[in-house]
# Entry
Amino acid sequence: MNIRLWLRNGFERVERVFDAAFSPAHNPMHHLGALGWFFYWIVIVSGIYLYIFFDTGITQAFASVEYLTHEQWYVGGVMRSLHRYASDALVVVALVHLVREWAKDRYRGKRWLAWITGIPMLWFIYALGISGYWLVWDELAQYIAIGTTEWLDTLGIFGEPIARNFLDQETLTNRFFTLMVFVHILVPLLLLFVMWLHIQRNARPDVNPPRALAAGTLVMLVVLSLVTPAVSHPAADLDRIVATVNPDWFYLPVYPLLDHVPGLALWAALGIGTLLLLVFPWLPPARKQAMAVVSLANCNGCARCHADCPFNAIEMKPRSDGLAYDSEAVVDPDLCVACGICVGACPTATPHRRAGKLIPGIDLPEAPIANLRLQVLEAGARLTGPGRIIVFGCGHGPLSSASDSASVAGIRVPCSGALPPAFIDFVITRGHADGVVIAGCREGDCHHRLGVEWTQARIAARRDPYLRARVPRERLRTMWLGSSGGHELEQALSVFREHLNTLGPYERQTDREAV
Ligand code: HEM
Ligand code: SF4
Ligand code: SF4
# Structure
C-alpha cells in the first residue's frame, strides 16, 4: 500500500471535518506552522515572566517555582501552566506539520529548505523542553538529570563520567544547573533564527494564525491552565532514589525507553533517524521541471508576476534591453517550482491576442500558454451540448479522477492560479463552452500555497489581472475539492450542467455592458 497516499487521504478526510467545524479559513490543520509560531511566542512571553521570579540557585529554584505555582497562582501559576502547555502544543503541531508536509509532498525539489531547517528545529524544541524540566529541580528534574548524564556518558566523550555530579547531595554543584539556565535561554534564540530561515523561501509566510483561531487557542490554554495547573513533583533529593515520576510524554519519552534500550543504541537510532530525515527531500528527487521563462519582448515590467509568486522566485530588475519600461522580471532558477502562478498573473497571457504566436511575458516551457489555448480550441470543437463544460483542473485537485465525456472536457493546468482569467472570458464569451469549472486543492490548502487565494481574488475582481465584469459568473464554478474529491466533482458537474441548460447558450452582451 502507498503510505503517502493513504496518509494524504487521511489528512484530507480529517480536514474536511475541520473545514465544516471551523470553516476553511480557520481550519487549524491549514495553519499548523502559524500555530507553531503562536505557541513559540506564548512560551517566550510566559518564560520571561517566570524568569523574573525564578531563583537560579540550585537550592532556591524549587522554592521559587513553588511560590509562583501556589502563592501567585493567579498570574505566576497561570504563566507556568501556559509555558508548559504551549510547549507541549508546539511539539504536537511540529510533528503533525512534519507528517502532513511529507504526506502532501511539499518538501522536495526547490522546496527543500523548509524541510531541512525543520529537523534542527525539532532538536532545539526537545533541548528546550528537557532543560526546562531540569530547571524546576524536583524529582522529575532529578530523574532527567541522572538519565541525561548517564545517557551522555554512553557516548564516552567526557574525560570522566558526568553522571558523577549527581551521585548525592554532597557532590551536587551549581555547574550543571547554570549550564541548563544558559541552554534554556540560548536555544530559544537559536530556534527563532532557524524558524526565520524556515520560511525564507515562502512569500507571505503564514506565521500568524487568523485572529479567531489564535484567540480560541489562547482561551483553551488559559482554561486548561486554570483547571489543571502545572505542578512540581516533590523537591529533588539526590540522597533518595526516585521511585515514580510522571514524565511529560510529549518531551520525555526517551527516558523510560532508556530502561529497556542501551543508551548507545538509542543515540545511533536518533542519529540515523536525523540523517535519514535530512536526505528525505532527495528520496527520491523530485522530477526536474523547467522553470518559468521571461520573454523580454513581451514583458512590460508590471511586476504582477513578482507580486503573485508564492516562492519569492521573481525579482524585478532594471531593464536590460533598452525598451521604454523601468523594470523587467527575472526568475531565480533555484527557487522556481514551475507552478505557473506567474503566468496566471501576467496581463499578456491572453488567448484573445490573434496576431502572431502567443508568447506571454512569462511562460512555462513544459506547459506553454499557447498550448492551453490550443487545448481550449480543441475541446470547444469536440464538445456537444447542451451544457458543455470545460474543467480547468490542477494536478493536485479532483480532475485526475474525473472523466471526460461528450459534454465535459478536462484541461490540466499546473495550478489553479496558473490559469489567466482571460481564458475563462475567452471560453465563455467566445462560446467554446457554456460554462467553466476550476477544480483544485481544498480552500486554504493549495499545493502551491497561494493559487486558490489568487484565483478567488481575480474572479472577485479584487486582484489584477481580474476577470472582466462582462463574464457572467453564473457560468463559472470553482470546486475546491482536493485530490480525493473526484466523486464530488462528478456530482457537482451534473448539477452545474443542469443549471447551464436552464441558462441556455451564452449571448453576447451589448458593447455598453461588455466592460
Ligand atoms: C516549531 C516548529 C515549526 C514551525 C513553527 C514551522 C512553521 C512553518 C511555517 C510558518 C511554514 C509556512 C507555511 C506557509 O506559509 O505556507 C512552514 C512550512 C513548512 N514547514 Fe514548517 N514549521 C515547523 C516545523 C517543521 C518541521 C519539523 C518540518 C519538517 C521537517 C517542517 C517542514 C515544513 C515544510 C516542508 C514546509 C512547506 C514549505 C513550502 O511550502 O515550500 N516544518 N513551516
Ligand atoms: S512558476 Fe511559480 S515559482 Fe516559478 S516564478 Fe512562476 S510563480 Fe514563481
Ligand atoms: S507579469 Fe508579465 S508583463 Fe508583468 S512583469 Fe511579469 S512577465 Fe512582465
